[in-house]
Amino acid sequence: MVHGKALAVVVAYDFYLECAEGKLRPEWKVNKPVSFQSFRETLAVQMLEYNPKKRLYLGDDKYRVSTQEHTSRRVRPSSATTSSSSSTGPLSVDSFTNPGVKSRLCGDLRQLQEHLRSLRQIQGKQHRICVVCGLNCSHECVKCGVFVHPKPTKHHGTACFMQYHSTAFFGLCKSDHKLVGVKKSDWQYILRSRSKMSMPGLLTRFISKLKDSAKGRVSTTEPQLSPTEPLATLAMAATKTPMTTKK
To answer: Are 209 and 226 within 8 A, CB to CB?
Structure first.
């Protein structure tokens, strides 16, 4: 038993030296690797401080300290012990691919949280023009320096604040009329039902067409989209119905 543990420490030190060379991953490179004695002492300290209740390794749930613990207090065994995942903690790749979790997560929203924290109401009775729908509003995104509706209004069911910061709605805000080559007087706002139906797929097809055109692959079944063609015009073509205007 003693020889087996000693061999495990020697093999672990060889793994450490291989990782410290930086050939597996450059960020793991160590210019001066520690000696075998220091490595062994570090392992000893980690072993003494480790609590099997964490259940991070195979066999932790068989220790007496783990079996005596109440079931309601037991930590869920890490999926890192399975062969189908790769994790260094309680979460793994399988945790994010779970159908329930996958439908819940919408990406990294930390930047959006900064905009939400900077949202403030304008003092007094003065109103400003919303950069999305063009109607009067009383809230400002201080981080962007624009005025938007923070909540859905009676004119449209989606908050202008979310539309302004949405990639799928880029080019359809009133403040984007110059970017898409539309005069301010000719700008039109897409209804919620139509924009929800057309814009995500429209932008995806638009970007795909640009990539195909750059690679020389031209489709013969669909009309070609020009990079200079306004997205608002493309959206109107996708909905196949005229857009409403609020003047």
So the answer is: no
**DSSP labels for 32-45?**
SPPPHHHHHHHHHH
Task: Say what angle helices 192-214 and 231-239 make with each other, to 10 degrees.
Answer: 120
Average confidence (pLDDT) per 10 residues, the chain, 247 residues: 85 91 88 91 86 82 82 63 48 77 84 90 82 89 91 80 86 84 79 45 60 61 46 46 43
Cα distance between residue 59 and residue 113, in whole Å: 41
Closest-CA residue to 192 (of 246, 144, 228, 145): 246
Task: State residue 198's pLDDT score.
Answer: 46
Pairing of strands 146-147, 139-141: antiparallel
pTM, entire model: 0.45
Helix (H/G/I), strand (E/B), else coil: 231: helix
In the chain, how long is the greatest CA-to-CA distance?
Answer: 85
Q: What span, in angstroms and rounded, lies between the C-alpha atoms of 136 and 130?
A: 6
Give residue for tokens 């994790």.
Answer: 87
| Dist. CA 32–CA 49, nearest whole Å | 26
Q: What is the pLDDT at residue 153?
A: 78
Nearest CA to 190 out of 113, 132, 142 is that of 132
Per the listing, tokens 């072993």 go with 47
At 5, list the tokens: 């543990």
What are the structure tokens assigned to 37, written together? 């004695």
